[in-house]
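Record type: monomer structure entry
Structure origin: computed from sequence
Chain ID: A
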Amino acid sequence: MKSKSFETILYSTVGILAMALILIAFNVVAGAAKKRIDLTREKAYTLSPGTKAILRKLDTPVKIRFYCTQAESSTPDTVYLKSYAKRVEDLLAEYKQVSRGKVIVEKHDPQPDSDAEDAARLDGVEGETLRNGDRFYMGLAVVMVDEKQTIPFLDPNKEKLLEYDISRAISRVITPEKAVVGILSPLPIFGMGANPMMARMDQQEQQP
């Protein structure tokens, strides 16, 4: 009896240790691979090939400042918006993952009269007034060196355009549009060609 009890304990202990080693090995491998699995039916957090192409071209870090109010009150509006904010964070994490660290995500909580609220306003992020009168911030600013693109408010009703809006903002900061300058002047800016009728008088062409 004692022999059987000892064998049972031995086998159960070995089994527990084996399971523990398997779990540890799985976590190590998963951590090294750094793969994220998108289990949503519409693949909401799987970036499109176009977005991946933009992120792979990054050679300078791009910072995304995500402003989201961490409301303490649990009204239907705040619960709905905080749920959407969590999905936005998950998508931003995917951007960071695919960019191999070139996309830096910062999260700020713009409470009333706080430095974060001042920063949000400077970045052009606007707070939406809820039905209870509180202001709820949920927007982001994409910054690279001196270029900045802002999404003032992330509307949950436009969730299908979320990836497009973020990717467009990143694309615009890495390839800013050059300003077009027009000149209006009565002077011959581009020079004045010689008049054929005056060629006999050796009139020369005017340089710009």
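Annotation 1: The chain has five helices and five strands.
Annotation 2: Helices lie at 2-33, 49-56, 76-98, 115-122, 162-174.
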